[in-house]
Design goal:
Layout: H1 6-12, H2 19-29, H3 31-48, H4 50-53, E1 72-73, E2 80-81, H5 92-128, H6 130-144, H7 148-159, H8 163-190, H9 193-200, H10 205-213, H11 218-241, H12 253-260, H13 270-297, H14 299-302
Antiparallel strand pairs: 1-2
């Protein structure tokens, strides 16, 4: 009696990929999305480990080292300024690292709250329909008639400045935009046979919404969430630049631009250029990551 060749059979079995192989495959398929993901991870790393990465206190003014160019040492012998100092002698490198905390706090909070509220309103509007849907959609039309920055400026003008007010000012314009997108997907899901079957056997509206409709509109919800992250960071920087966002001495990239973009554009170019680069790289990275998430979740794009 012959025994089966175990080595031949084992060679035919699919080999499980390691984590590095999965990462390499993702980098080949979505190089831009992978680059955006690296930017997101770098920002998270900077925000979490800011106390250990920053060589100086970002809020500590040192008038003996005002407008020191990049690569210079402190006049007081306190250390090395990698990116130079601002008009108050504060280390730009430390303020950019801590500024990632402000950007992520505002960006993630506003994007998550706005997307979740939009998800709830969009699903409810599609499921209940009738006058509720009609009235809600007209209210959403009013909010969507204003650009994001104009709506955020109006809210900040009403409620005042500060981190919490900025988060609220960015969150509110996100809600109708997410609700409109989620509603269009929920309308299609509402007509599916399994929803009719659940309704016919007496399931409550809450169970149908949470068990059958909401899970099937997660893809557009995640796409909107990732898109909102980059927009929230840009909006926070814009409001801070205008003096209506985060206030001194909190490190924020837009606030750093507001303090040096015009006055020191020629005499100390490093004061506005490094915060501007930080904003550009962060928004670009989040947009690339959001596009990759959209491509991964959209079946029409995934099949190409």
């Amino acid at each position: 009696m012959t025994t089966p060749d175990i080595s031949i059979e084992s060679d035919r079995l699919p080999q499980r990929k390691s984590v590095l192989q999965h990462i390499g495959s993702l980098a080949r398929k979505q190089p831009l999305g992978f680059a955006g993901g690296l930017v997101v991870l770098a920002m998270v790393f900077m925000a979490v480990f800011a106390p250990w990465l920053a060589p100086f206190d970002p809020e500590q003014a040192n008038f003996a080292d005002m407008l020191v160019p990049p690569g210079s040492t402190s006049e007081m012998g306190e250390g090395f300024f990698l990116l130079g100092t601002d008009q108050f002698g504060r280390d730009l490198f430390s303020r950019i690292i801590y500024g990632a905390r402000t950007a992520l706090l505002v960006g993630f909070t506003a994007a998550i709250i706005g997307s979740c509220a939009g998800l709830a309103l969009g699903v409810a509007s599609a499921y209940f329909g009738g006058y509720f849907d009609l009235i809600l959609q007209r209210i959403i039309d009013v909010f969507m008639a204003f650009p994001l920055i104009i709506m955020a400026l109006a809210i900040v003008a009403i409620f005042g400045t500060g981190t919490e007010k900025v988060i609220m000012a960015i969150t509110i314009p996100f809600i109708p935009r997410c609700a409109r997108v989620v509603r269009s997907s929920a309308l299609a899901v509402r007509e599916m046979p399994y929803v009719d079957a659940a309704r016919s056997i007496g399931y409550s509206s809450a169970r149908i919404i949470f068990r059958h409709i909401a899970p099937n509109v997660v893809a557009p919800f995640l796409i909107m969430l990732t898109a909102f992250l980059g927009e929230a960071i840009l909006l926070e920087a814009s409001l801070s630049y205008l003096g209506l966002g985060v206030q001194e001495p909190t490190p924020a990239w837009g606030l750093m631009l507001q303090g040096g973009a015009e006055e020191y554009a020629e005499s100390a170019i490093w004061v506005p250029i490094f915060p501007g680069l930080a904003i550009t790289i962060a928004v670009f990275g989040f947009n690339l990551f959001g596009d990759a998430v959209r491509d991964a979740l959209d079946p029409r794009l995934r099949s190409q």
